[in-house]
Write a structure and sequence with these properties.
This is 4-diphosphocytidyl-2-C-methyl-D-erythritol kinase. It is an enzyme of class 2 (transferase). Belongs to the GHMP kinase family. IspE subfamily. By secondary structure, the chain is α+β, with helices and mostly antiparallel strands. It folds into two domains: about 150 residues, 2-Layer Sandwich (Ribosomal Protein S5, domain 2); about 120 residues, Alpha-Beta Plaits (2-Layer Sandwich). A hairpin with a 3-residue loop joins strand 5 and strand 6.
Length: about 280
């Protein structure tokens, strides 16, 4: 069984508070994009996980491996599996590549064993693995609240994107630990952004995008700001860092402009993609 699992971007990301357990409360708009990993699941004598990228762990620290363990325990599945991950989504990039792989495993085993789990049931299992996992059972365009698990489906956004991941690694934990809520000068107007989405006003949406985590990540890694500027110079309607970074995306009205921007960025960044938004998850 092979499952295509898409990446996500954040069209906006706001931190609106902090729980007693240390988790930050979020209000963000998430969007799946046509950049896919592929996860192949086959029965095997022992648990094995493989990946075509050497910087992806192939042991229990891989969230897809843990997804298998959760499903085996919850549904008394005695079989073992070989999980083969074809990784096309950049790693540790703010694009939720690990979370979408975990969602693919849950959906794949649900189908393989005819468990007939509902989307809500799969979301509940996914949340035990990570806050971004439930989103991939919805996909498309969603408002995510709480720690990211409270999802509200929005109208589909349709546009061309350039996504660029500079060759740096950003620790999500570091970003949140160094985020100073009382020093954030500009928050996204999430209600207004949703209105733009509902009226299919892509230009106003792009111009209104804000990610408050940029206040930490861009200060540490100025290359993110440089990429945003290049995207705007090449005609992007708006440009934003996704998640805690370091990936940056730009929204383009015209695919030809997106391709020109892609070619410029490829001069010094290896992982650059021209993709579109999609209205599906795993």
């Amino acid at each position: 069984m092979i499952i295509e699992c898409p990446a996500k971007i954040n069209l906006s990301l706001d931190v609106v508070g902090k729980r007693e357990d240390g988790y930050h409360l979020l209000q963000m708009i998430m969007q799946t994009i046509a950049l896919y990993d592929r996860v192949k699941i086959t029965k095997n004598n022992e648990m094995v996980i493989t990946c075509n990228k050497i910087d992806v762990p192939c042991d229990r620290s891989n969230i897809a491996y843990r997804a298998v363990e959760v499903m085996k325990e919850k549904f008394n599945i005695e079989d073992n599996f070989k999980i083969e991950i074809e990784k096309n989504i950049p790693v540790a990039a703010g694009l939720a590549g690990g979370s979408t792989n975990a969602a693919a495993v849950i959906k794949g085993l649900n189908d393989m064993y005819s468990l007939n789990l509902s989307i809500d049931q799969m979301k509940e299992i996914g949340l035990k693995l990570g806050a971004d996992v439930p989103f991939f059972f919805e996909g498309g365009t969603c408002l995510a609240e709480g720690i990211g698990e409270k999802l509200t489906k929005l109208n589909d956004v349709s546009c061309h994107l350039v996504v660029a991941k500079p060759p740096i690694n950003v620790s999500t934990k570091y970003v949140y630990q160094n985020l100073k809520l009382d020093e954030i000068a500009v928050h996204p107007d999430t209600k207004r952004i949703i209105q733009y989405i509902n009226s299919n006003d892509i230009r106003s949406l792009a111009e209104s995008m804000v990610n408050v985590l940029e206040t930490v990540t861009v200060r540490e890694y100025p290359v993110i700001f440089e990429i945003k500027n290049i995207m705007m110079e090449f005609g992007a309607l708006g440009s934003l860092m996704s998640g805690s970074g370091p990936s940056v995306f730009g929204i383009f009205e015209d695919k030809a402009d997106a391709l020109k921007c892609h070619n410029r960025l490829r001069d010094y960044i290896k992982e650059v993609f021209v993709v579109s938004t999609i209205n599906r998850g795993v």
